[in-house]
Design a protein that fits this description.
Blueprint lengths: L8 H8 L3 H23 L2 H17 L9 H22 L5 H16 L5 H5 L2 H10 L3 H11 L5 H8 L3 H19 L3 H7 L6
Length: 200
């Protein structure tokens, strides 16, 4: 069965009225998937995360205009932001080699020609597996892991917030990653890429 991301219409109505909690629910529902979409297009996990955050910032800045359903709108927004990123990169990296020029052109064509990004991830229920894996962690480990994963807090920040040592945070993150590696299997490397663990 294909896993479909769904946000109910009442959540969108609350966002229209400036409800920050409802917006946070929208963000956490779509963040991982949209990062995967952007990563596929720009081949850079850090840039992909910035793009997705920019998209959500734009959504919040125009929250009164958001219309249900939002899936297609969010994906289209990410694609457009990715195109802008690649075009800016083309202008900044002068002169480009033939290989670089061809790569950027291929990336742009891929975005234009791909109406269903990451369909293979949907079929494998990638989103659902990540959320289930994180939710299956022991309570203490899960709380720390979520702060690190979704809120991009440092070990030191998490330690201060939770009144524990940085070494304890490090151990809990290691436990969380080991569990996710076991549960995600072949999807684990993609998970690391999306959340930029290779560079942390």
């Amino acid at each position: 069965m294909t896993f479909v991301l769904i946000v109910k219409e009442d959540i969108i109505s609350r966002i229209n009225n400036g409800d920050a909690k409802a917006f946070e629910q929208l963000y956490t529902t779509f963040y991982v998937y949209l990062c995967a979409v952007a990563t596929k297009y720009v081949y850079n996990s850090e840039a992909a995360r910035e793009i997705v955050n920019d998209v959500f910032m734009n959504v919040w800045n125009h929250h009164s205009a958001l219309i249900h359903p939002v899936n297609a709108y969010l994906i289209r927004s990410v694609r457009n932001y990715c195109l802008n990123y690649l075009r800016d990169k083309r202008q900044q990296e002068v002169p480009l080699s033939d290989v670089q020029e061809n790569l950027l052109s291929i990336q742009e064509l891929q975005i234009d020609a791909d109406p269903h990004p990451l369909a293979y991830l949907e079929n494998k229920e990638f989103e659902e597996k990540i959320y289930r894996a994180v939710d299956s962690l022991p309570a203490k480990c899960r709380d720390i892991f979520v702060q690190y994963l979704y809120y991009n807090k440092t070990y030191e920040e998490i330690a201060i917030t939770n009144h524990i040592s940085s070494s304890t945070v490090r151990v809990q993150i290691k436990i969380g990653l080991a569990k996710l590696r076991e549960l995600l299997g072949d999807l684990y490397p993609l998970f690391l890429l999306i959340f930029n663990f290779f560079e942390k």
